[in-house]
Amino acid sequence: MQDYSKFIMERKTLLTSKRTNSTKQPRVLAITTSRDRPHFIRYCALQMAMQSVSVDHAIFINAKDPANHRKNYISLLDDIDPRNTLFLGFGQSIVPHHNHCAAMGLADRLDDYDIILKIDDDDLYRHTYVEEVLQSYDEHNWDFSGSHSEGILNKRERHTHTRHESLGLKERDIELGVPPMMPNSFALSKKAVKAVRSLDIPYDKFIYEDVIWRRFLVGAPEFKVVKRDVSGVTYNIHGLNHSIPMLKKEVDPLPIKKYDPRIGWTLKGRLSLEHENPRVLVFLTSRARPTFLRAIILQLLAQDIPVDISIYLNHNDYLNSFFNYGDMLKDLPVRENCTVYFQFGPTLTQHNNYMASLAQAPLTKYDLFLKVDDDDIYRSGYARSVLESYDKHAFDVSGGYSEGIIIDSDWFKDLQLKEKGEACESVVGFTFAFSKKGVFCLSDILPDSRQLDSHGSQNLGDTWRTHFEKNSDIYTLFVRENTEASFYVHGDNYSKTFSLIKK
């Protein structure tokens, strides 16, 4: 076996108390490699942490220049409750096959696992994905399996009925009889993993791991290969994909379903509603960013106190079902004492989008209201820290600075961020929190045309801050020291009025 220790610069294991495996199900390890994609890797870790069955997860974060600590995202993941075990490693990028083998090597005892799942950091895995793979394994006892993509995300469009069988098979694959399977759905038995790790692949031979694995395992008669009927994974086509040219253009076979405005649903906790209702309502809006939307909901469902969630998903072309991502959220494990409100409708003004989000929920039942953005990082203790601050200081509106900041693919964990502006306490808008009195008064705000930019957009943070500061004799304003949140600056951000400060 290859020794990958020389490539690993930092290793960390996050453990939780082990659950009793009364059904004696096979032990499963998910493996992921990731480079220069901090938001995707957190999204992926949360999807595996919240699976319906127990799964350990090994993630190898790698960089061309591992001396660049800004590429080490381990501290972006260490608040996640893995429900089982999360193995994290950071080190030197190798070729794809060896990157994945390095991820396997992060596990304490790899031989203890019966199944290894190849999990890509940017794709959608349903809450029951691992459970369905296990069911296939129990039925067919395969050594190597995979499935198709159940629908696709094509940048901003959600194609529910379109499916991809593979990323393209070459002549050699066809000769060997390789079944069409998506690489992000590969699953290997213990025997197959041992054989794959023994392959003599040079460290500088750049061939994608899925090509190496499928040809070797299908070509060797001692391995049983099965194409799984149930998928549970959705391929995400975006600008960072290397495999886009391999995909054929496929059109959704069903006509576009026309929606009436403000189509929505409500999901209540799976078990019962007899528990004490959460005191906190988190409200947000999202438009044409399906991966960000699913990622933020995962972060909110993973909070260490229960919160209710209200989402207003909007688009200018709201009659087009390609922009309604509601079905991407319905599989998520809503806590037994939580409620998720969802609506899809037309894009309003930025302020009124948030008012539409709030309008779905019975506001009088909550004490605290948290405005969150779909593209930022909220640690698992975020809601609790704000609630503790509210109970201590009884504010009407508050906010904090960003604790750490992501700029494109760089993670600056030792920097804070605050917004510039005339306001003396220019906290970052993605951390706003309101009392009941404060949130009801948001409806009194009328956007000032002088606050619109050249695109007709409104600087919502400045508008809300200005309103409450002008009425500081009525409302209690407070700046929180403990934020538990990090701002994500990327290509879609329009905010350019930032100042960075050392922690």
Helix-strand blueprint:
Elements: E1 8-15, E2 28-34, H1 38-49, E3 56-63, H2 74-77, E4 85-92, H3 96-105, E5 115-118, E6 124-125, H4 129-140, E7 144-146, E8 152-154, E9 157-159, H5 171-176, E10 187-189, H6 190-197, H7 209-219, E11 225-227, E12 233-237, E13 263-268, E14 280-286, H8 290-301, E15 308-315, E16 339-346, H9 350-359, E17 368-371, E18 377-378, H10 382-393, E19 397-399, E20 402-407, E21 410-419, E22 433-435, H11 436-440, H12 460-470, E23 477-479, E24 485-489, E25 498-502
Parallel strand pairs: 2-3, 2-5, 3-4, 7-11, 8-12, 14-15, 14-17, 15-16, 19-23, 20-24
Antiparallel strand pairs: 1-4, 5-10, 6-12, 7-10, 8-9, 13-16, 17-22, 18-24, 19-22, 20-21, 21-25
Tally of separate helices: 12
Low-pLDDT segments, ≥5 res: 251-257, 270-275, 449-456
Count the beta strands: 25
Rg from alpha-carbon coordinates:
24 Å
Shape: globular
Calculate the terminal CA-CA distance, rounded to whole Å: 44 Å
Question: Helicity range of the residues?
Answer: 10-25%
Whole-number mean pLDDT: 86
**In this structure, how is the largest beta sheet organized?**
8 strands, mixed
Secondary-structure content class: alpha/beta
Question: How much beta, percentage-wise?
Answer: 25-35%
Strands ordered across the widest β-sheet: 1-4-3-2-5-10-7-11
Describe the structure.
- The protein is α/β, with parallel strands linked by helices.
- The protein is built from 12 helices and 25 strands.
- The strands form 4 sheets. Strands 1-4-3-2-5-10-7-11 form an 8-stranded mixed β-sheet, with helices on both faces. Strands 13-16-15-14-17-22-19-23 form an 8-stranded mixed β-sheet, with helices on both faces.
- Helix 1 packs across helix 8.
- The longest helix has 12 residues, at 38-49.
- The protein is globular, with a radius of gyration of 24 Å.
